[in-house]
Amino acid sequence: WLFREFVSMLKADRIRILRKRWLVDPDASSRVALRGLMDPELRQPKGWAYIFINPAKQVHKRRDDEVGTLIHELAHVLLPKTSERKILRIEDILTKTFTREQRAILKQFIPRHEVKRYPRSPASTALTR
Prior knowledge:
This is IrrE N-terminal-like domain-containing protein. The protein is of the alpha/beta class. The protein has 5 helices and 4 strands; from the N terminus they run αβββαααβα.
């Protein structure tokens, strides 16, 4: 069920996935690198969101490791009120239970290129038009 939900969200273009180096938590004072980020501040009014994945080798040794981070961030989108601890458990369980084919399908949604900057927030683009 969760796999089908993840794929339907990704196919419906409700989520935009971006790979960005130097990904840090904008709310934390420490500059610790994150594996991924689903920033609720960048949520679009039409019900879609940005997911950032850190492609740095220190964070993800291989591109296949980014699928676990994608699962984690998709769980945040699908289950927004769930605690981080439970999301980590969900990620661990799903990463182990998804088949190789399912992980390959999810990997297809992760772009190969990296972005240099964060996209503009919807509020700031609306004000500049």
